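so my prof wants the structure for this chain in the tokens format not the other one, which i didnt know existed until like an hour ago. anyway here's the sequence
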Amino acid sequence: MREILIFKGFTAVLQEVAAALLPLLIIFLLFQFLLLRLPQEEVKRILIGTFLSFIGLSLFLQGVHVGFLPAGTLLGEKLAGLRYSWMAIPIGLLVGLVTVLAEPAVRILTHEVEKVSGGYISQQIMLYTLSAGVSISIGLAMARIIYGIPFLYIVVPGYLLALLMFRYTPPTFVSVAFDSGAVATGPMAATFSMALAVGVASGTPGRDPLMDGFGLVAMATLAPILSVLLLGFIYRGRSFDNEGR
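here's what i got, hopefully its the right format
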């Protein structure tokens, strides 16, 4: 019975993933016949990889539905119901830290940045910078929900600060910073953290889950931008063109 509940709705998930991957597969096959003309073994490897992606994405999304979302929501509601509701803030800091460390896209980004920069921007430094940024943002999001801080009071000054930091940050870090903002809020960070925020808002008296529970992803996107720009400000005395290539 438990196994049946775990895979409840899995057919719909399979259909959603198939609908998302099928256009990409059709485009590849079209270009294969018209332009690429890849060897048969290469095509076979790509098709197997696509099938594995289909299975992996389906299982991941099913896991999100039956695991991440309920766990995050329940944890948020319990934290909000505690006598010391401010405990949601350090928990948010911890959640932000570990979800970024587990985010596959972040690993790819940090690896590519280190490779392209020739070690000028190390993978570990980038990983710790992104983790710290997202951790602070989720902790701040928990504080916003608990103490009723308006969303615009945080986001607008944050983006104004980012625009100001552009003037003092090397262009290399500006482009990396905005990619980091998108990558750091991938499926690992967004699913559990968003459910946690909605749970905290649901369990906090006077808070509307729709109004107060959302906005966390926007804050988590902004934080890595600021942290990477700050890293660029620290690195600005070095020359990427001379040292990174």
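also thought this was worth mentioning. Residues 9 and 62 are 8 Å apart (CA to CA).
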